[in-house]
């Protein structure tokens, strides 16, 4: 998987950017606030459809005009494709248009054309953070490798909105309780697709994550477990009706899932030190990139946003061994400090300053 | 923007209420009508008035109709034992173009959507059930969209109709006719493989 060329127009602080990336390691250097993360965000959007960090899409549109555009030339299995994500501000919202090779696509149909593994400082808190962030970890992986997952996920969100709205209407006496049956059935049908995909992904991630963890070498065994809804989801959904009606929301379903991370048999959330938790995160991220490569036969583009400086030597070393493994890598950093000289010698180095990017040899 | 003369402003306002027409398009259309022959403009106004005066909904299936029954319901050649349920009158046209279906229709004019306050009663489900019971219907094809609300509506109808001993079916998902297998998107191909049938 290769990102050949990236064009940004009015994306965040980039009024106009046009760069051709190199197949190996691309290092983007610059002080904070110059646009390093914005650059990586735009690349991640090409893989995920949506920004992994923006709360509202209008945030992405820069100050120059009421529209923004991300354009890329990517190469997958030797085949070149052009991807476009355009945003048009309409009132308070931004309307998103997506094209693959000039043909309009729905947002759920973009992922899978271009694949990345994104690792940024937010991820370092993955173990400590709430379950929603660990679900996002699984979602970002699965939309890219599992056909139909993005659609199932967006369907699940819609079903929950509809079901929760109906619960409130029933509680207010505006609708009959028998209407819940179809939404329970839909929740179970689409929920099962999501659950199956997550369960098998966690099974596939586990051995590689454990292997990476052993390699970085803190001695403890790393295990991960998928915590999904009860096996008989239909019965559980049915049994929770009274509770759901009282709360006006859905208590059973994959929207409550979690990924449990264990170190030496103990829950890493409460038990691990910050260093141990970070080792676990690096292992999970490497396992993620490995899973994408195994499922698709092609390494994802690795996006590392200023994480090297946050890691100690051993963890950095494990990550860099992977970086040196041959796939395309896009790394941002404040300076060359965290990089070994031989990596810098073979990398393409770029300078990022105030929304401008220049190659620097 | 400078103030337009009141009648023109009102026309722009009315046009911009149409689906798919934004303020810019509405202005362009309004100025186009302003420049057009008086006869053309009046003919458009008359056509709109006629549609509202002469076209209503079929009492039996809620399709568009010029009298109390639509052309399909009043045709003696149609098979009354099969009903195809669709979301809109436009869907009737789509199915009719195939010339494959010789039964009757039932137009829901919507789908079940609690967020929008639309339940089975708002899309005439009781009338459909009554019709199914009284007219000796053998099969109901639920041709709602394959999105979340369309699927939920299909499930609701299936559950309501099955106890009446009526066969309930859904159109199949699959490969486009004449399409190359290698160009089919993965999900469509996966559905087509799952729904394969023997020769």
Task: Compose a concise summary of this entry.
With 361 residues, chain A is of the alpha/beta class. Chain A is built from 10 helices and 15 strands. Chain A has a domain of 175 residues: Glutathione S-transferase Yfyf (Class Pi), Chain A, domain 2 (Up-down Bundle).
Based on secondary structure, the structural category of chain B is: alpha/beta
Sheet having the most strands of chain A: 6 strands, antiparallel
What is the topology, as strand order, of the major beta sheet of chain B?
Answer: 4-3-5-6
What best-fitting shape of chain B do the alpha-carbon axes yield?
globular
Sequence stretches where pLDDT stays below 50 over 5 or more residues of chain A: none
**Class from secondary-structure proportions of chain A:** alpha/beta
* Biggest sheet record of chain B: 4 strands, parallel
CATH topology category name of the domain at 125-299 in chain A: Glutathione S-transferase Yfyf (Class Pi), Chain A, domain 2
For the termini of chain B, the CA-CA separation is 66 Å
The pLDDT mean of chain B sits at: 92
Question: pLDDT below 50 for ≥5 consecutive residues: which ranges of chain B?
Answer: none
Number of strands of chain B: 6
Bin the strand percentage of chain B: 5-15%
* Rounded mean pLDDT score of chain A: 93
Our Rg estimate of chain A from Cα atoms comes to: 22 Å
**SS element count, helices of chain B:** 7
Query: Based on CA inertia axes, which overall geometry of chain A fits?
Result: globular
What does this structure look like?
The complex is a heterodimer of chains A (361) and B (199). Chain A has 361 residues and is of the alpha/beta class. Chain A has a domain at 125-299: RecF/RecN/SMC, N-terminal domain (Glutathione S-transferase Yfyf (Class Pi), Chain A, domain 2), CATH 1.20.1050. Chain A has helices at residues 36-48, 131-145, 149-171, 180-216, 233-239, 241-247, 268-271, 274-296, 313-323, 341-346, and strands spanning 2-11, 14-20, 25-29, 67-76, 79-90, 93-100, 103-105, 116-119, 222-227, 258-263, 266-267, 301-305, 329-333, 348-353, 356-359. In chain A, the strands form 3 sheets. In chain A, strands 2-1-4-5-6-7 form a 6-stranded antiparallel beta sheet, covered by helices on one side. A 6-stranded mixed beta sheet of chain A has the order 8-12-13-3-14-15, sandwiched between helices. Chain A is globular. The model of chain A has no long low-confidence stretch (mean pLDDT 93). Chain B is of the alpha/beta class. Chain B is 42% helix and 12% strand. Chain B has helices spanning 6-16, 23-35, 38-54, 89-98, 125-134, 148-161, 186-194, and strands at 56-57, 64-65, 79-86, 103-107, 139-142, 167-169. A 4-stranded parallel beta sheet of chain B has the order 4-3-5-6. Chain B is globular and about 65 Å long. Chain B starts with 5 loop residues before the first helix and ends in a 5-residue tail after the last helix. Chain A binds chain B through residues 109, 112, 147-148, 151, 155, 158-159, 161-163, 165-166, 169, 174-176, 179, 181-183, 185-186, 189-190, and chain B through 112-115, 117, 119-120, 147-149, 151-153, 155-156, 159, 185-187, 190.
